[in-house]
Amino acid sequence: MFRTAIPLGRWAGVVVRAHWSVLVVLLLITDLLASAVLPQAAPGANTTWYWITGGLTAAGFLASLLLHELSHAVVARHHGVEVRRITLWMLGGAAELEGDPPTPKADLRIAVAGPLASLLIGGTALGGAILAAGALPALPVGGLAWLGVSNLLLAVFNLLPGAPLDGGRILRAVIWWRRGDRARAGAIADRSGQVLGAALAMAGFVQLLFLGQFMGLWLVLLGWFLIFAAQAEFTAGPLRERLGTLRVGDIMNASPVVAPGWWTVDAFAEYAARTGRDRVFPVLSFDGVPLGIVSLGDLVKVPADARRATRVIDVARKDREVTVVGVDTEVTALMDRGFPRAGRDLVLVTRAGGLAGVVGADDLARAFELTALDHRPRLAGGPVSKVTTDH
Ligand SMILES: [Zn+2]
User: Fold this and answer.
1) Catalytic residue IDs
2) Among 56, 102, 161, 199, which is least packed by CB within 10 angstroms?
3) Cα–ligand 1 centroid distance for 170 (angstroms)
4) Does the pLDDT of residue 158 top 80, yes or no?
5) Total number of domains constituting the chain
């Protein structure tokens, strides 16, 4: 979903990035502040100052969004749940956790931390604005007051009881605690998220069509996102339970066609044409070390007259563009890192630094489908890791 994001460095040890849609939000909020909110709060000021204050306040809003997500992240880590990264985007922020909270109590604390941070920021900013009114110029006071109110609204909105909102997580934690069944609790929170999403989208439509208010579009988008995200979680939840401790080594292709990095594009294309039916290949060094991946699509981009002079390794995707996991990695952990695109991506599976196999979109889909059919995918003749017999 967030493939194109701008890295913003590490905050409290967590990788933070921003999707480009954040820029749109920054501009929209600045515009709203400079042309409507601030002129009303502090009439008679210079237009330039409205825009400067608006821009600073919008940046402050993004910073408080980041603090909200960081609060989730810090509490999650405290409970032993690693945080892969935080992504800010058009409709807010998302802290991506590696795995699930161990207990209902941890689940609850991680969920509550975000809205609590927003409430604190909102209260502080609004309190500061009230205290500073009269002592400071009306313009910065207006910006601070807006920041306070918007953070309070953010907290309240996030407490609505539907996944994936924080309120949905709280609902899940409470039901999990009372009934002792995490999967069931998650399903209820997801369903509740869909109902909530539909209600928000409907309210947005009414606002947009009958009241002519443009902000309705925002609610429609938000509602649609909630329905979509809750549905995705609802589907992934039971699957995750069933996948259990299945390892990448169990679902990988252990004998893929490999691309020798030092070959020319032309020589490898000829080899690929008569070997197997693959479209993506692991690229190996002369010593057999996995270096990256290359797809037929990557080779196509090399101009025809350069194919005899260009080496495969020069067009291969390497380092951060490639997912590399060990054979003992759980499939659910791989699932969390995003899905490989068919015909373009390949996950490299390593054992002791060497290539053990590869996992493509089809291998993952096959594993999911077999799991849904109550069968555990297993490599014929391949290395089968500890297979649990839980059903
Ligand atoms: Zn949150």
Assistant:
1) 69
2) 102
3) 11
4) yes
5) 2
